[in-house]
From TrEMBL:
Domain Aminotransferase class I/classII large, chain residue ranges per copy: 31-382
Alphabetical list of InterPro entries matching this protein: Aminotransferase_I/II_large (IPR004839), C-S_lyase_PatB-like (IPR027619), Class-II_PLP-Dep_Aminotrans (IPR051798), PyrdxlP-dep_Trfase (IPR015424), PyrdxlP-dep_Trfase_major (IPR015421), PyrdxlP-dep_Trfase_small (IPR015422)
Enzyme class per UniProt: lyase
Entry's family note: Belongs to the class-II pyridoxal-phosphate-dependent aminotransferase family. MalY/PatB cystathionine beta-lyase subfamily.
Keyword GTP-binding: no
Record's protein name: cysteine-S-conjugate beta-lyase
Length: 390
């Protein structure tokens, strides 16, 4: 566990989180706790595999062969009990590129796509950028927990003739790991109205005790045929810069359309080092991942305990997975501009603006807890001190 406590400066590595922070927050003393990557080193087995590959010295076009597909298949089977056929896999440089490809290949201009808000900001842009319409099914807050309004979901699908649903599971930013029952209800509605499901399950491996990730495609064969699942080892093992990901599509005709779209955009290869990293991570990274999940869960508990015992003005939602905490700052009674400025200038922490996830994020901020405890302690102390100094 010690390696998760080690502070490693990322400044000067062209890190978006650390090196862009000064420009973004206009203050070099702001502690960056925003963009969704981790301040932890990837497992040693991954670094060793990369070093060995780098040592080889030739980085020509590289084939992600059958072996890599088998590793992905095994990972999904052992971590999530989901049995897939390796032939269902399409490689992609990232989940965002995959979402762009999916929207373009499976919907037409003017089509309606439903999302559950507040949600990861690119969900809006991947729809709007291609001339499709966003339909919102806002999540509802009940007893300090975000839940799905199923009636609204079905009504909006019917009213707008929705053809595609982008699911975020686990959900960024609210931290819910949707239960099998919730997913079943959603998928029943989708099946009834022939709505295809795009499941962004990039956070699938980051799950806390008492919760279990269910790939929505694993619910039944008809749902499997309706679903396109976007996955990646990059959140799990902190490899986002290596841009290596994949899509799982069981329906052959949907997969054909999607593959054609990737092909037409010239996306037919994976990053050489990304393949090596993914292979090593899936083969040797499980023990490290178990430790990571324990660390993240203890960080969640730490943040909740401190904030709730030291101020009554902020409320932290108990994330069930991911390393992102959604904080209700409405008790501060500030408008969004004031809240952003308060966190930046008074608390000197760089958080994600709640409104970037949709209007439902007004009065909220998102905090990244995937950092050594010392950084987390510093960030939380800054927030609490600033709140209490008001
Ligand atoms: C829900 C979700 N999807 C996709 C991504 C980004 O995926 P990628 O880096 O593979 O494009 C993120 C990153 O934060 C995310 O939270």
């Amino acid at each position: 566990m010690e390696h998760f406590n080690q502070f490693i400066s990322r400044k000067g590595t062209r890190s978006v989180k650390w090196d862009m922070a000064e420009e973004l927050y206009q203050d070099k003393d702001v502690l960056p706790m925003w963009v969704a990557d981790m301040d932890f080193k990837t497992p040693e087995a991954v670094t060793n595999a990369l070093m060995e590959r780098v040592e080889h010295g030739i980085f020509g076009y590289t084939l992600p062969d059958r072996l890599v597909k088998n590793q992905i298949t095994e990972w999904l089977s052992k971590r999530h009990g989901w049995e897939i056929d390796p032939e269902w896999i399409t490689y992609s440089p990232g989940v965002i590129p995959s979402l762009h490809m999916i929207i373009q290949s499976l919907t037409d201009i003017g089509d309606h796509v439903i999302i559950q808000t507040p949600v990861y900001p690119p969900f809006y842009s991947v729809i709007k950028d291609h001339g499709r319409h966003v339909v919102k099914n806002p999540l509802v807050l009940k007893d300090n927990r975000y839940e799905i309004d199923f009636d609204d979901f079905e009504r909006k699908i019917k009213e707008n003739g929705v053809t595609l649903f982008i699911l975020c599971n686990p959900h960024n930013p609210v931290g819910r790991v949707w239960t099998k029952e919730e997913l079943k209800r959603l998928s029943d509605i989708c099946e009834k109205h022939s709505v295809k499901i795009v499941a962004d399950e990039i956070h699938a491996d980051l799950i806390f005790s008492g919760h279990k990730h269910t790939p929505i495609a694993s619910l039944s064969e008809p749902i499997n045929q309706l679903t396109i699942t976007c996955l990646s080892p990059t959140k799990t093992f902190n490899l986002a810069g290596l841009q290596t990901s994949y899509v799982v599509t069981a329906d052959a005709s949907i997969k054909k359309k999607l593959d054609k779209q990737f092909h037409n955009q010239g996306m037919m290869m994976l990053n050489t080092l990304g393949i090596t990293a993914m292979e090593a991570a899936y083969e040797h990274g499980e023990e490290w991942l178990e430790e990571l999940n324990e660390v993240l869960e203890s960080h969640r508990d730490y943040v909740m305990e401190r904030i709730h015992s030291e101020t009554s003005l902020l409320k932290v939602f108990p994330a069930e997975g991911t390393y992102l905490l959604w904080i209700d700052c409405r008790g501060l009674q500030m408008n969004q501009k004031e809240l952003k400025s308060f966190m930046q200038k008074k608390a000197k922490v760089g958080l994600n603006d709640g409104v970037s996830f949709g209007d439902e994020g007004k009065g909220f901020m998102r905090l990244n807890i995937a950092a050594p405890k010392s950084i987390l302690e510093e960030g939380i102390s800054r927030i609490i001190d600033a709140v209490n100094a008001q």
